[in-house]
Amino acid sequence: MPSPVQIVPLGGLGEVGMNCLAVEAAGRIAVIDCGVLFTDEPFGVDVLVPDLSWLIERRAQVGAVFLTHGHEDHVGALPFLLRHLPVPVYGTRFTLAMVKGRLEEAGVAADLREVVPGDVCPAGEASPISAEFIAVTHSIPDACALALSTPQGTILHSGDFKIDERPVRGPGMDLERLAALGQAGVRLLLSDSTNSERPGWSRSESAVGPGLQDVMAEATGRVFVATFSSNAHRLQQVIEAAAGSGRRLALLGRGMVQNFDIAKLLGHLSEPGWMPVSAEEARRLPPRELAVLTTGSQGEPRAALGRLARGDHPDLKVHAGDTVILSSRQIPGNELAVGRLVNELCARGALVRWDGHPPLHATGHAQEAEQRRLLQLTRPEFFVPVHGEYRQLARHAATAASEGVPAGRCHLLTDGQVLSLTDAGARILPDRIRSGRVAINRDEGGAVEVPDAVIEERRRLAEFGLLMVVVSLDGASGAVLGEPEFQARGVAGLEGQEAELGGEVRRALEALAGGSRATGEAAWRAARVELVRVAVRRWFRRATGRRPLVEPVLLVR
Ligand SMILES: [Zn+2]
Predict the structure, then answer these.
(1) Do 311 and 277 share a domain, yes or no?
(2) What is the CATH number of the domain that holds 471?
(3) Do residues 330 and 370 both lie within one domain?
(4) By CB count within 10 A, which of 228, 347, 384, 399 is most buried?
């Protein structure tokens, strides 16, 4: 009897981001994608990565990582995975180019293996799983779906996709191959749910170019265009719009410069006949002759557009009469940051344009009609919606049901729930495996894991402050010498109350005065430290309703 296959989602099912899925058969495991989730959480948390402990415990069984495309929410957590399990990583050329820099920054060596659509790659030695890469259209070049050949038949993973019938470049989505797989029989389809709540067919990427061209032709000042730097087809359209309206192009933001170079090197940008101008040249050009591609469309304060908005970018300034185009969608959670950015730009006299009339952005994700098309082409026996919050997964499952996948064969999984595929069918196993999120502080110098307890401590520090209580005790009698002293950082409600709180501390310690130190110095101290902490906390709760962090310091004389 063919071996069962387990589908193990470690991230991306129940949230938008940190996509990571494991597929296990006959004791061998293949991993699809390993991404981060950007977060607006405060307290020094930059990104979240999936809890990878399930994979790390099974490191000897993992044979390969297959990457669908190079977006951070699909590849950004690779360094954390490869540090523990150095397995081969398969991806297309642009995908691997996106990954290389990240791995180098993290100091992680990797066995990267380049593929082209049509390639079939084994998931390691003795693995019954292999993956075929199939070209799809998305908001980054070289994106692929994966058709996994397994002991339980073909499992098709859509990756992130849209069905763009007029792509800016490239062959487009390989609908023929997908239809052929459907004809041969797809056992299970896992499909991108990001836009399942949007009806109809998504706008083609190529519809954005004319809009950009119109705005640039109309504008009398400089035009700044903020977009994701990995969207090479968007960059190409900005280049053309700039050229068509008599503007030279400058680049702002480290990511923009890097990804522009990669896209150019890999042939995704037509030779514009001229190079982007330097910042110095850009400053000299008349405003009517300059367009600027910049990072920071999501309101990130440290990105180039955020700095321009605050007026502290070293290279360029935004002046009254300039136009700023946000050629992007706000990622949910970034609304406040983008709102702040737009206010700051408007206060400088800039005209801020975003998608509307004319079109200035196109989504990279399939909307409902495209999701239906994929279901019709592939006619899967079982269906699991992936990449989305629960509501988006549920909506996508309803779409699949209306396309003829019986409701009992649409499985709504969230991270940590395992789907077992056997000859008898597919069912969700009763026990969840360990999954979750790990918070990461990611600076230019590297990445540090931030445990939950540390985040909780930071939250309390931010909310209530820190109070140090210094008490001198007589070593022999345990009596309090002098008055307790307080050093507060960010604590409200203490001023003028020091004497009262000092009295509280003194009374608490007097209850233990005379206690013997014979039981041990450490225990003697610990008992008093705890007493002080409890007394101070109790006083604060009563007096202010707040709970500052309390750090007693005992000076024993
Ligand atoms: Zn993507």
Answers:
(1) yes
(2) 3.10.20.580
(3) no
(4) 384
Segment (H or E) for 459: helix 452-464
230 and 171 both lie in a single domain = no
**One pLDDT digit (tens) per residue for the chain, 557 residues:** 899 999 999 999 998 899 999 999 999 999 999 999 987 777 878 889 999 999 999 999 999 999 999 999 999 999 999 999 999 999 999 999 999 988 998 899 999 999 999 999 999 988 999 999 999 999 999 999 999 999 999 999 999 999 999 999 888 999 999 999 999 999 999 999 999 999 999 999 999 999 999 999 999 999 999 999 999 999 999 999 999 999 999 999 999 999 999 999 999 998 656 679 999 999 999 999 999 999 999 998 889 999 999 999 999 999 999 999 999 988 877 889 999 999 999 999 999 998 888 999 999 999 999 999 999 999 999 999 999 999 999 999 999 999 999 989 999 999 999 999 999 999 999 999 999 999 888 766 667 888 888 888 888 899 999 999 999 998 888 888 999 999 999 998 888 989 999 999 999 888 876 666 666 888 888 889 999 999 999 999 998 888 899 999 999 88
CA of 387 to the centre of ligand 1 (A): 10
The two tokens of residue 207 are 């519809």
Is 158 found in the same domain as 85? yes
Rg (CA), the chain: 29
Q: Which residues surround ligand 1, an ion (CB under 5 A)?
A: 71, 160
Catalytic residue chosen out of the listed positions 268, 365, 387, 411:
365
Q: How far is the CA of 143 from the centre of ligand 1 (A)?
A: 8
Q: Is 443 found in the same domain as 471?
A: no
Q: Do 171 and 223 belong together in one domain?
A: no
**Same domain for 430 and 301:** no
Residues 309 and 363: their CA atoms lie apart, in Å, by: 25
- Classified as helix, coil or strand, 77 is coil
Please name the residue ranges forming H helices in 144-284.
175-184, 208-218, 232-244, 254-265, 279-284
Q: Which one of the listed residues 192, 322, 355, 415 is annotated catalytic?
A: 192
- Angle CA 359–361–366, to nearest 5: 110
| Centre of ligand 1 from the C-alpha of residue 364, in Å | 7
* Catalytic (active site) residue 365: yes
Ligand 1 centroid vs 101 CA: distance in angstroms? 18
Which residue among 450, 468, 498 closes a domain? 450
The last residue of a domain, from among 404, 423, 450: 450
CA–CA separation, 467 vs 448, rounded Å?
27
pTM value is: 0.89
* Number of domains into which the chain is organized: 3
Q: Say how many Å lie between the CA of residue 448 and the centre of ligand 1.
A: 25
Distance 75 CA to ligand 1 centre (A): 10
Tokens of 46: 């930059």
Residues in the chain: 557
Is 357 an active-site residue? no
What's at 150, amino acid-wise?
Answer: T
Q: Report how far ligand 1's centroid is from the alpha carbon of 210 (Å).
A: 24
Do residues 109 and 135 touch, judged by C-beta distance below 8 A?
A: no
Residues 210 and 155 in one domain: no
Query: What range does the domain containing 551 cover?
Result: 457-556
